[in-house]
Amino acid sequence: MRTSLVRKLPVMAALTMALAGAFATAADAQQPAGPPAGADSTAPPASAAAPATDAPPATQPHREHPARVAPPTPPAPVFIAMPMPPAPAPPVDERTDHTKIVGKFGVSWLGISEIPIADATPTGTASQPGLSPNDRVDIKTVSAPVLGVRYWLNGFLAVEPGIGFNYTGGSTKSDLAGQKAEVDKKSTTAMMFHVGAPMAFASAKHLALLVIPEVNIGFARSNVKSLITDNGPPDAHLSGLRIDAGARVGAEMHFGFMGMPELSLEGSVGLLYSWQRASAEVAKQQVTDTNVQLTTSSFSNPWDIFRGIGTVAARYYF
């Protein structure tokens, strides 16, 4: 054991010296270097002896900047087509067709009214005139087409005036062997006046139920000259009068379902009282015929709505 320890001593001594030399070298490196031996310690340092010159700045070590990475491109905006809200529906007109024609004028053909008039001729002489026939009155009628206008004051009440007119006349000329003559034909004038007061007691979308009280007054006039020119009788005066009063119940259907609420078709039935008189007069002689009639209104042919006959009529409101 002693022998091995003796062998290791030189090695340990060498290691110790090596460590001591290393520590000395490190201590010298930490001390600043002094002036060399023999040099004047009062001599200014080299930096003071030499004038200052513009020395270039010390070059900084180049540093590698990290590469700039471009920011990611934002995604393109995505537009989602949203369905447009539906257009608001136009306001629905809840009014009935009857309400829409309030304040408007409805024109219609109310029908052809027949006005009675006597048919006779003067006879006799100027001093003793007479009529032919003289024991009765032959009656004929004169047609007076009535055109009416209906105006609704409100949704319940309307006024309906109407008028009809008819005139006929002319003359007859003759030339027989130089004998010329001209005789006026029997001229006839007839007029009919109508007044109604329609009332709507119920109405639906395209229909109105009506009650129509009405009055008709018509008259006719005519003069007949005698064919006797020598001491002939005076002219005969022929006349006629008609008065109707009654009421009808019906319905007025408007064509609003076709976009024309102003156009309507009316049908009705009713009860009518009619008083008629016809007379013929010459000088102081007069023959009169009077008739009274109570009847329901009638309607026979479908095409009568365009002729104005009966109680069915077409009407248009302006």
Produce a short descriptive summary:
This protein has helices spanning 2-30, 46-49, 97-100, 304-307, and strands spanning 105-119, 121-124, 129-132, 138-152, 158-168, 171-176, 179-184, 187-196, 199-203, 207-224, 236-255, 260-282, 285-296, 312-317.
Layout of strands and helices, then pairs:
Layout lengths: L1 H29 L15 H4 L47 H4 L4 E15 L1 E4 L4 E4 L5 E15 L5 E11 L2 E6 L2 E6 L2 E10 L2 E5 L3 E18 L11 E20 L4 E23 L2 E12 L7 H4 L4 E6 L1
Antiparallel strand pairs: 1-4, 1-14, 2-3, 4-5, 5-8, 6-7, 8-10, 9-10, 10-11, 11-12, 12-13, 12-14
Report on the structure:
By secondary structure, this protein is mainly beta. The protein has a domain at about 95-170 and about 185-315: Porin (Beta Barrel), CATH 2.40.160. It contains four helices and 14 strands. It has helices spanning about 1-30, 45-50, 95-100, 305; strands spanning about 105-120, 120-125, 130, 140-150, 160-170, 170-175, 180-185, 185-195, 200-205, 205-225, 235-255, 260-280, 285-295, 310-315. The strands form three sheets. The chain has an eight-stranded antiparallel barrel. A two-stranded antiparallel ribbon has the order 2-3. The longest helix is centred in the first third of the chain and has 29 residues, at about 1-30. It starts with a helix and ends with a strand. The model is unreliable at about 35-50 and about 300-310 (pLDDT under 50).
